[in-house]
Amino acid sequence: MGATWNETPSANRLHIGVFGKTNSGKSSFINAFTGQEVSIVADVAGTTTDPVYKAMEIYPMGPCTIMDTAGFDDESTLGEQRVERTRLAAQKADLAIIVFSAQPVSGESYEEELKWYTWFKERKIPVLLIINKADVADAAPLKNYLKEKTKEDALAVSALTGAGMENVREAMSRRVPENFGNRLITGDLVTEEDLVLLVMPQDIQAPKGRLILPQVQTLRELLDKKCMVMSVTTDKLLPALNMLQQAPKLIITDSQVFDYVYRNKPAESMLTSFSVLFAAYKGDLPYYMEGARQIDAMNENSHVLIAECCTHAPLSEDIGRVKIPRMLRKRFGERLRIDHVSGTDFPQDLEGYDLIIQCGACMFNRRYVVSRIDRAKAQNIPMTNYGITIAHLTGILDKIVLTLR
């Protein structure tokens, strides 16, 4: 089951994370930059606890999500938990802003900020260095220090007066990852006036009166491409095909009915699924394909982790908690161990797992999904996703079309 549609899915926005020590002025900076009261501001260390996510339009970058985070030096009773939430926000950041105070506490060092700077740079996440409170202290010494340490020019601003905010906007726009927002769900599989058939079963998992997010996003992209689109439920597949004067160029189906649609589709029609398309759109398709091949090496003593993004209450015939486990146990036996995690719960230590199966991740931005993939790669754990797993287990993975990036 995927997330349902909302007006502008946060997962598709540019995620801008604001990081720094407690009382460095992160929240004040965000409020001044956005011109809105996004975050609570107070002269009390640790005012920001859980990260604050604010979706908004920022010219010229377009739809963005601003993430205000707890200070990474939070030493309060709940400090470690707050810092862990900050680390999670960092994994979602497409662009990171590290805020320094031009008026530091006596004897304060900047080692922690520089560690975070290095962490972002190692992951090829662009970083912007901001020196706040430049209205009450000389920012020049700190600018020179940061230039020496990072080879980058920090920007001096004042959240109180608004000075320097236009320079921040320009610097941010220059740091937006190249081609961000230009990824296509359907790649080059179809173009203008191609006929596309969407097979979308509306079973107990489908929310009443709504479509799930991958279906909506795919449909919108096809309409933007000027394709001709027809949508049916599984039971209307054959009547729909009989009505058409020509076979669809592409059929996109829900993965759980892959086998049925494959057996009944026209030979000339290409076939894929929403989940398979999202494997490339949100993840690392070659790594997922390699992970699927590892399924053949598993046995009844293997250990599998199934990770879904949604936090909905599991329903009967849930694809991640019922259908995929049933398919795996049918092949490898009931002793096969399967763990489930949902939302942002994902183990740091993946040792002991023989395979990770990730959902389509429509609720997460690509940066966060890639952080999971990188963790699996670093620990040599195979990883794949729902649609590719089902296609492999039904024996049609080599007969569907993929979109490589």
TrEMBL record:
GO cellular component: cytoplasm
Cited Pfam families: HydF_dimer, HydF_tetramer, MMR_HSR1
Residues of the G domain: 16-133
GO molecular function: GTP binding
GO biological process, one term: tRNA wobble uridine modification
Keywords: GTP-binding, Nucleotide-binding
Name listed for the protein in its UniProt record: GTP-binding protein EngA
Organism field: Roseburia faecis
Lineage: Bacteria, Bacillati, Bacillota, Clostridia, Lachnospirales
